[in-house]
Amino acid sequence: MRTSTSIVVGLLILVMLLLITNCAGTIGAFQSTVTITSDRGGNISNYISKYKSWAAANKKIIVNGYCASSCTLFIAIVPPTSVCVTKNAYFGFHGAWDQTFFSGQVEDPAATLVMMSQ
Prior knowledge:
There is one protein chain. Strands 1, 2, 3 and 4 form a four-stranded parallel beta sheet that branches. The longest helix is centred in the first third of the chain and has 18 residues, at 2-19. The protein is elongated and about 50 Å long. The protein has four helices and six strands. By secondary structure, the chain is an alpha/beta fold. The model has no long low-confidence stretch (mean pLDDT 77). The protein has a domain at 19-94. It has helices at residues 2-19, 44-56, 74-77, 109-116; strands at 32-39, 59-68, 83-85, 90-92, 97-100, 104-107. A hairpin with a 3-residue loop joins strand 5 (97-100) and strand 6.
């Protein structure tokens, strides 16, 4: 699992490098703009719904700060032409996990598959 996770993370970093663009000049073509500056992620289903809604509403997404965990799902859901990644953006990728009462966090392979299927 660790090797495949490393490959996926490497591919995601490559995608992010390809998304780094000049943000000026395209904003007017969109209904509205959302700027991500500090997002640690959260519930995967909530992020999938949010990003599908943003894509349907033709929102421009500007990442200008920290975007980690499920925040990064926009890569797979929002069209690349609607995304601007500034030089100030940085990302945190990892497999999904669940919070447990006794042990803190445990890996959740099923939720990771949901993320990867987007």
